[in-house]
Amino acid sequence: MSSLLESCKLIDQCSSALSTVAVAVAALSCEAARANLSALDLTDSGDGSVAKDDIGVSSDIKVLLNGSKLAVSSNKGDDKVNTTSFSKILVVYGNVREAVKSLHSVIRVVENSGEKLGGKVLHLCFELKNLGESSLERVRLNLGSISIEGLKGVFEKDCLSEESLRNGVKLAVDAELEKDYVKLVKDVDLVLGIVWKIVAWEAVTAFFVLEGVEVLNEKNDGKGGEVDEENVKAEKKKKKKKKVLLGRGTSFIVEMIKDRLTSKGDGLEKILVEFLSFLDPKSPDFDGLLKKVKEILESNESRRIPKTPKGTREFAKEQMAIRKKAFSIITKVFERHCATALDTPAFELKETLTGKYGEDSKLIYDLADQGGELCSLRYDLTVPFSRYVAMNGLTSFKRYHIDKVWRRDNPSKGRYREFYQCDFDIAGQYEKMGPDFEVVRILSEVLNALNIGDYEIKLNHRKLLDGVLEICGVPPAKFRTICSSIDKLDKQSFEQVKKEMVEEKGLSVETADKIGTFVKIRGPPLELLSKIMGGAEGSELLKHNASKEALDDLSLLFDALDKSRCIDKVVFDLSLARGLDYYTGVIFEAAFKGGVQVGSIGAGGRYDNLIGNFGTKQVPSVGMSLGIERVLTIMEEKAQNQAVRATETQVLVGVIGDKLAVAAELVSELWDVDIKAEYKVHKKVMKLIEHAINSKIPWIIIVGEREVNEGILRLKNIETTNEEVILRSKLVEELQKRLSP
């Protein structure tokens, strides 16, 4: 066991070094291929949906390529190269890092069995194979850009291929099946050695693309490998540029390799032997290379930008354009229903929020006590609304509120600690079920207007659910906590929820099973309601006063929704519970039915007693809240293949030369008449046109010294490329004519 453990430790150490050096080598290949780096630009979304190690690889590549002009952003570069050879780097290399960490954590526990060690080592073997195949793609890509004869032949002598990797993995799998863990570790070490050679060759080929042709020419005057003279001249011509174009991190690595090679033997084969030896983890000089790479990645000068807190997000200009559009649509729907806007403080007195959210009260963010009032960040917008109504003695109020809320939750996909809510609430005495109908209708209108795709609105009644719990034998004191369990049925199976109700909350198995017969009931509202009223379940529910009242309410509501032509999106679902303590009547929740899994996208219900908690009189209320962050995730997903304009710029004023005053005069005239315009001053006209194209600006005014002298302007339509000359004095008139609908 001790020898097996020591062998695993060596694999762990060598794989850890590989996971660092391989990323640096991949960064060199990015520059060698002038790769499009958009697929490698990964940031923490704040919801835990992106693997931490993938983000780490992305961050390391950014550090290495900081300042590079060879590896480019999404507007330039070779998209084909990016897709075929670079787009999987983050996942593949991130998985290797995760597998190394997993093996390391097992090794630390000495008493681990050979079987457990073997499983972790084999998992690492599969991930190493994937890394080797990814690196091999870039070796071949780099070889296609090198003009040195003989280099490809030397590479082929090493017999490195996908087949050699697969054969190595097959041997490891066979050993694991035979439970021969000593052989398994030896086979994985063999695969690791192959991968190291491939990565070393990726470094060799990337280096020769970037600098190696000239280094070889200087070193041996063309001996040891024939070099195309024309290519050498071209490489020399580009050399001056490349010195300043390489990334800050990769340039250090390239210089380190150059220093190493220029101090050793002549000839292509000798240089290759020296190069490959330098990248051999068994070489005495390898530690120096590894140390340098780690220094670059951890240096204060180029270290990654400070992180945002977990569960929070920042939004780039394209995302902000989508958010702005969504908020505009939502506000329009809210105002169509004659609501007024309300704003309340970001934090409330702690006593205002305490006891309103059931088991979720633990998610409230408390602010530090600084010798004054005890305060907490608002958890939602409903409780502050209720406090406002009570505090101001209002008896009726229809309001909407779009703002941030905070919850000390564990971030996960679609779940954040800071996020927006879009709320609409109606407080006051109205005709029975009138406000309930309107808020469900508003939720449907909003989701339709946002055009997110198919969705459903699950609907139930808290009194009906309470009646079910009483009929099933649940003590009234446990109603709210059992509701919290039932509310998890959209994420867990009934068996899991049943286990929680029985083992953690003290219900009998019989009671839990009886609850199961009710909460599995769901279907079209009118049809299911009719069935319940006439069925066995209904006979029990109709004998219960609260349940009968709830069924009568739902009958009125479903008729109104039917006449309003939005009942086709509603599902009557007895499993819907909504965990918040303050609900007293109708409850509902919207769920997206498309490909993007985001959970609930909107919810609400009636809360007749909440406002009374803050004042002397009760004001019945009902409201809805849109899960805007999840809706925006869907909208962003749909917009991926669409052109999204970050600004609404209508015209670019492009001044050829360096005269800011000319640009200031022209653009100010446009701003004065409410034309959305921006300006750019540059000596090259193509830079001005490129800016308009990249920013999706439909029109550009081009003016240089000749145009100024002649009192004219050139007006260009970016989409059609048509260009015409207009009088300087007619600028506003001509543009208004073309911009008017």
TrEMBL record:
Its EC number is 6.1.1.21. It is an enzyme of class 6 (ligase). SUPFAM superfamilies: Class II aaRS ABD-related (SSF52954), Class II aaRS and biotin synthetases (SSF55681). It catalyses: tRNA(His) + L-histidine + ATP = L-histidyl-tRNA(His) + AMP + diphosphate + H(+). InterPro entries: aa-tRNA-synth_II, aa-tRNA-synth_II/BPL/LPL, Anticodon-bd, Anticodon-bd_dom_sf, His-tRNA-ligase, HisRS-like_core. Residues 400-635 form the Aminoacyl-transfer RNA synthetases class-II family profile domain. PROSITE patterns: AA_TRNA_LIGASE_II. Pfam families: HGTP_anticodon, tRNA-synt_His. Keywords: ATP-binding, Nucleotide-binding, Protein biosynthesis. It comes from the Eukaryota. Belongs to the class-II aminoacyl-tRNA synthetase family. NCBIfam families: hisS. This is histidine--tRNA ligase.
